Amino acid sequence: MESVTLYEVGPRDGLQNEPETVTTETKLALIGRLRASGLRRIEVTSFVSPKWIPQLADADALCSALPDDEEARFSALVPNEAGYERFRAARLPVAAFFVSASETHNRKNVNRGIAEHLERFQPVAQRAQAEGIRLRAYVSTVCGCPYEGGVPVGAVIALVERLLTLGADEISLGDTIGVGHPRQVRELIAAVAAVAPLEQIALHLHDTWGRALANVQAGFEAGIRTFDASLGGLGGCPYAPGASGNVATEDLVDLFDRAGIATGVDLDALVDASAWLETDVLARPLPGRVYRARLGERRRTRERKAS
Ligand code: HMG
Ligand code: MG
C-alpha cells in the first residue's frame, strides 16, 4: 500500500500564534493526544527568543517533561546558536531551521537578512551534523511574501541548494501566507526536483485562501510524500500578517484514507483531540473542515439515537 508521512506542527506553528499562552501541562497533554492518534513526527516547540514568541517560552521545561518515546521523532525550531544550545540540552533528535525566500519576511521574522542568517547558521549546521542531529530546514514564503508579493522560483531553488549544502536532511517548502495554487505548486516542485531528491522535500501549506488541500493533492501528484499539517487547522505565523493556520491534519488523513494511501493516523482520535482543544483549552472554534464535518456527523448520530 502506498503511504505518506504527516508531520504535525500544531504544538509549534499552531500555538505560537494563539493570543493566550497555553500551559506546559496542556501542551504535554496535546502532544500525548497527537501521539495516541498515531502521529510520530511532531514539532513540539521552538527554541527562539521568548521575547519574540512568548507563547513558546516554556520550550526548555516542556522538553524536559516529554515522555521517553522510542517510536516518536520530536523536533523543534532552532534559529541560531543560542537556540541550538537550548535544543541540545532538550535532547531532541531533530532541529528545524527556517529561512525565508523573501528578504523582507526574513528580516521581520529573524531580525537578519537572508545571507547573514544563513552565514550565522552554518557552524550550527556543522555541529548538528557532527553530533548526529537530523536537520530539517524550512524555506518560507515560497508562493508569495506578505511584504514583497511574488517570490521568484529561482530564489527558492537557490535556498534549497544552499540548505542541501549545509547538510539539511529534509527541506520543507512553506507557503507561509497560503496564497499558492495547484499550478504554482506543480511548477515549483518540478523546479525543485531538478536540484533535490523529492524524498527530501516536504510541503508546509497554510490555508488562508482555502487552497491548501488542492495544493497537497498537486504536491502528491508531483511526487511529494511528506506533508506538514496542524490539528484542527490551528496556527499561523506571527510575523506574516494575514497568515492563517496550516492545512488541518484531519483533512489530510481523510483525503489520503479515501484515496487508499496509508497515513498511520486515526481520524477519530484526531477529532477527539481537536474537540478537547477547542472546548477545554482555547474556547474558540477550530477551522478544520473535516473536523467540523465529523463533529456534525457525530451530533446527528446522537440525535437520531435519542429520538
Ligand atoms: P535578536 O533579537 O536579533 O537576537 O533575535 P540577538 O542575537 O541580537 O540576541 C538578543 C537577545 O536574545 C540576547 O539576549 C540573546 O541571548 C537572546 P540578551 O543578551 O539581550 O539577554 N537570544 C535568544 N534567547 C533564547 N533563544 C534564542 C535566542 N537567540 C537570541 N534562540 C532571533 C533573533 C532569531 C532570536 C529572533 O528574531 C527570534 O526568535 N525569531 C523567531 C521568530 C519566530 O519564531 N517566528 C515564527 C516561526 S517561523 C514560521 O512560523 C514559519 C514556518 O512555519 C514555515 C512557514 O510557514 O513558511 C516555520
Ligand atoms: Mg508555518
Lay out the secondary structure.
Blueprint lengths: L4 E4 L1 H5 L9 H13 L4 E6 L12 H6 L8 E5 L3 H10 L3 E7 L2 H8 L3 H17 L3 E7 L12 H13 L4 E6 L6 H12 L7 E5 L6 H10 L4 E4 L19 H10 L8 H16 L6 H18 L1
Parallel strand pairs: 1-2, 1-8, 2-3, 3-4, 4-5, 5-6, 6-7, 7-8
Helix pairs in contact: 2-11, 8-9
The structure holds 3-hydroxy-3-methylglutaryl-coenzyme A and magnesium ion (MG).
Magnesium ion (MG) binds next to loops.
Describe the structure.
The chain is α/β, with parallel strands linked by helices. It has one domain: TIM Barrel, CATH 3.20.20. 45% of the residues lie in helices and 14% in strands. It is built from 12 helices and 8 strands. It has an 8-stranded parallel barrel, surrounded by 7 helices. β3, α4 and β4 form a beta-alpha-beta unit. α2 runs antiparallel to α11 and α8 runs parallel beside α9. The mean pLDDT is 96. Bound molecules: 3-hydroxy-3-methylglutaryl-coenzyme A and magnesium ion.
Short summary:
This protein is of the alpha/beta class. It is 45% helix and 14% strand.
